[in-house]
Design brief:
single chain, globular
């Protein structure tokens, strides 16, 4: 599963394991965002040496858990 381009199914699977069930629109937007982050990360090191899976689980899902407190 370690590749440069996330698929909607892969993103949905990781989110489901973390307890999130986003809509199809949200999945498309998040997958597009991850694709862009990984594309530009190769150019200017935006998020370190992470894979998109790491970016999703370490950076994004951690932030989503805080949503319940807002």
């Amino acid at each position: 599963m370690k590749n440069d381009s996330p698929t909607i199914a892969d993103v949905a699977s990781l989110l489901k394991r973390a307890g999130f069930t986003p809509s199809e629109t949200e999945l498309q937007a998040l997958t597009g965002y991850l694709t862009l982050v990984m594309k530009w990360n190769k150019v200017m090191n935006l998020v370190g040496p992470y894979s998109w899976q790491d970016v999703l689980t370490i950076l994004i899902i951690d932030s989503l858990h805080l949503n319940q407190f807002l």
